[in-house]
Amino acid sequence: MISSTQEALAALSVTNDVLTEEQKTRLKEDGYCLISITPQEWKDRGIDLDQISLVVNELIAKEGWRGGWDHIKEKMIEGQHPESGTQRLNNLLSKHPCFRKVFTIPEALACAKFLIQDEICLSQLILRMPLPGMGAQPWHVDWTPRKHQNDPIRSALTSLFLDDFTKENGTTRVVPGTHKLLGSPNDYGYNNEKSHPKEKYMEAPRGSLLMYDINLWHAGTVCKNGKPRRHLNINYRDRKIWQQINFKKDLPAEIIEKLSDAERYLLKIRDEDPNRNEWLFRNRNNWLVKRVTQAYWKFLDSKNKKKYSNLNVL
Ligand SMILES: O=C(O)CCC(=O)C(=O)O
In what order do the strands lie in the sheet with 231-238? Predict the structure, then answer.
């Protein structure tokens, strides 16, 4: 039975050398790393980008403008979209078996473990695509901004590019090194889309992986030429933190029955994994709930630090 991330990663053949020393250095120093993998290499690994792209298009046609907001679908009002100008899809693992192998891509798992340095789990697997002429985002980080240098990294992201990503079709921008800053982009005058002197556009062919620290300043940009720019966003989190998707509740039985022990561990769907408290989750941004949960996570951090001090983690 799998009872730790290290065991799960070993069962999935995620070894210390999945990421090169240079890639690890880039993750630490720049906060991100871009890896090129061809569609044929993906096929050899059992991940069919053509099939995934087809399924994604079918889901977009089916879900339309509501796509990506499954958790608030009753509240969605046409014309008042939470992120107009963007097509999203949410909870992909539940929607088609072609996504099954995406959440155990060895590089994504190695990156998550390397950055988070604690037990990890999948938080969500989603799609984002800017619509023609739209899709720009302000600079942001995807987590509560860090206040202290030793605050832990709670999450890591990997984007699997389903199309060639270019400056013209709205690729992601990042500012290298900003994952080391405390506070949010807003605290530095970047609460908007204005260009940053050190920004870099992540231009790379279909099949590439962009892996980054959740604290890195990043932003989607405008799809100027109207060409598709779809990516799967694989989000891993520190296991003690909420998962965005409650896989234990949402994953259909026919998908669960095909999963290995290691996959079940990473999704936190085993009997011994605690059920997500839905009331706390819904109220997670309430200041009191936030303070109490963060204090609890810090307490667990200090317990785990002792446990990890003797382990050779990725
Ligand atoms: O799609 C992109 O390029 C970035 C998406 C992103 O940063 C987000 O939705 O938080």
Answer: 32-35, 209-213, 155-161, 231-238, 120-130, 86-89
Whether 42 maps to a domain, the answer reads: yes
Q: What is the mean pLDDT of residues 101-114?
A: 98
For a substitution probing ligand 1, which of 137, 202, 208, 235 has the most ligand atoms within 8 Å of its CB? 137
Q: pLDDT by residue (tens digit) across 67-90?
A: 888 887 778 788 888 888 999 999
pLDDT recorded at residue 63: 94
Mean per-residue pLDDT, 127-150: 95
CATH at 128: 2.60.120.620
Query: What would you report as the CA-atom Rg of the chain, rounded to the nearest whole angstrom?
Result: 19
Query: Which residues on adjacent β-strands are paired with residue 179?
Result: none
Whether 165 is in a domain gets the answer yes
Ligand 1, atom 2: nearest CA belongs to which residue? 220
Regarding the beta carbon of 142 and ligand 1, being less than 6 Å apart is answered yes
What pLDDT score was predicted for residue 68? 86
Q: Would 288 be classed as within a structural domain?
A: no
Strands 218-220 and 172-174: antiparallel
For residue 202, the enclosing domain spans: 5-277
Answer whether residue 296 is part of any domain: no
